[in-house]
Amino acid sequence: MDKFKSIEAKAKAGLSFEEVFASPEYQNMLLSMLETTAKIAGYRRSTKLRVNIINDSDGDCPAYTNGEMVHINVGCQFAERLKKSYNLYNLFVVGLLAHEEGHILWTDFAKFNEANEAIKSGYIPLGDDLYDYDEEIENYSEYDEMLANEKIGRIYLLNYFHNILNLIEDIYVNAKQSSKFAGNYRKGIAVGNALIYEESPSIAEMAEMGLSKAVIYSNALVSKLKAKDVYYGTPEAEEEYSGTVNYIVSEIATMIMATPEKRVLACNLIICHLWKFIEEDIQNLKDKYDDEDSSDSESSKSPLSPEQEKEIEEEIAQIMSGLQGQTEDTKDTSAIAQPSAVQKNDKSLDDEKSSLTEEEHEAMRKALAACLCDGSSSAGTVTSEDYTAEDVDFNSILNGLAHNKAVDISENAIEKELNDDIRGDYGIADSSSGATINRFRSIPSNSKKSYERIVKGIKPIANAMVKELERVIKDENLSESRKNRIIGKKLTTSKLYKPDYKFWEDRKNPKKVIDMAISVRVDESGSMYGDRIDTARVSCVLLKTVADELGIPIEIIGDTEDNTVELYPYCTFDSKDGNDKYRLVSMTDRWGNRDGYAIRFCYKRLKRRKEKHKLLIIISDGMPAADNYVGEAANNDLRVLTRQIKRDGTAVIAFGFGSDAQSLSSIYGKSFVCYEDLSKVPKAFAKVLKEQILRNL
Question: Residue 17: which residues within 8 A CB-CB, separation 6 or more?
Fold first, then answer.
């Protein structure tokens, strides 16, 4: 594993929860899933769906929607234990997304609100349908009378009905989403269902906590429908509760997957079946507030004061807080959404059950009761082993975040190394004011566009050069065997009789590879303005393009001096962020030039490279011109420096741009090439680089 891969691996292992789940990349992944699945489902509203990630550890609601935006609180404590496995927690979050999207796609909030308004007005929603459903239904009259005549009872029933209807709707949209979408949507819903089962106290524990029996039964029903099981805790609790729970599930299972009206009726059936427990709660409240006038003709105008009503509502809210398994804020649905455009066109919502025979109807009830939701999980199986199958999208997020983090680590290390290299002996070229490194981290969008324009112009030259070099290397590496050898890799058995032992064969030549590193120093002095710096920029893009194609490490550093020496490492040997080529576009003419400092800096870094062959390219348009570094002393410093670099085995080529550059021949000698016609420079660069590569194969 190379150094950067090792950094990436460590970065991935060290990603924090916030870095992953609160990242824009993760939010964008969820948004993409939301948009894609909504489109598949046939979502046709003009409103653009959105996702908002919240990281609030104090919030107790993991997710909710207003019909346009899905809000997910990744900081919610509910699924805290899943946060040890990022893949598993991702599935949980995707399940929340699927659930809230399910409300947008499938919930008819007009019917939802209409039913709640009916309770608030004092009558059973769809009461006639409920009565027709079973003429002998138990407690129908008591339910009806309580709503019509008793204020406290009405407040209680409004809260209870609203919460139960919401839970029933939750079960419906989970089932709908799981059947509509497989993969992570289904798995995520399963994780959520199983987690609710596992995180909830047992039925026996609920009783010990003093929860209302109406609430306990409701929790058992939800657990049975979502997780396919109920955790009773004790045999006594199972004996007391299971019969009623199983019976109610068999009654309402098919109704949940039918129409919105049927789900309202299912809630009414639950209330009727659990009436004696509901009545107990209401009676306790009535006893406390002594609502004795509720039986007279004016009872609908409750004698309760506004303060008492508020207290009762708060007490009832406290009772309902024991209900398990809710994901969204259910206190106010009036502003959530209008009836779903998808639901209106969903033929599967038609009530087609009426044509079933009684036997078929009973079989359907049992089947749905056993496994209502395709995505439901067997209770108690939320483990990383079950849900960590490879998730390409999420793993790409992790890999991308790890790469970005590793890039930051790498860039920090590069900058530190560059700043460390400033220190040292630079001879008479040293600057009394020091030097600074200017490594651009952010890349403007216009730089990328400018780079693409340059590449388009030099691409033919680069492609031709690369193809020719690859052909030469291929030809050099053609395998030709040498026969009649004393030693070799292949034994020629037909020649074993020879007394000279020449019965071996081997390859003619070893494999040819490009084992080279290149450093380019670019003069960015003021005199390089106009066509000169443009030519340098284009030439460097060409060099970078060819080097990348051939796998040659390359470093390109511009320099100038304005009080201090300023070095611009556009491309560095170890850069991994992919932006070096775009940085080259920022190359420009600036101030003075302290050539000896910049060349020493480039060579110091090039010399450390492990490649066998090293090439230093110098681009300039004239003599050194810096504070206390000018004239013959500076020129002689460059002569001595160039000879020293060559003696160390590094090839040096100095390119002079423009008529002013001819004087540089006295410094660089045979290593110097001058071009007054700047249009010829890119091809010249390609030719020189090709010659150097071929010479060193």
Answer: 74, 83, 86
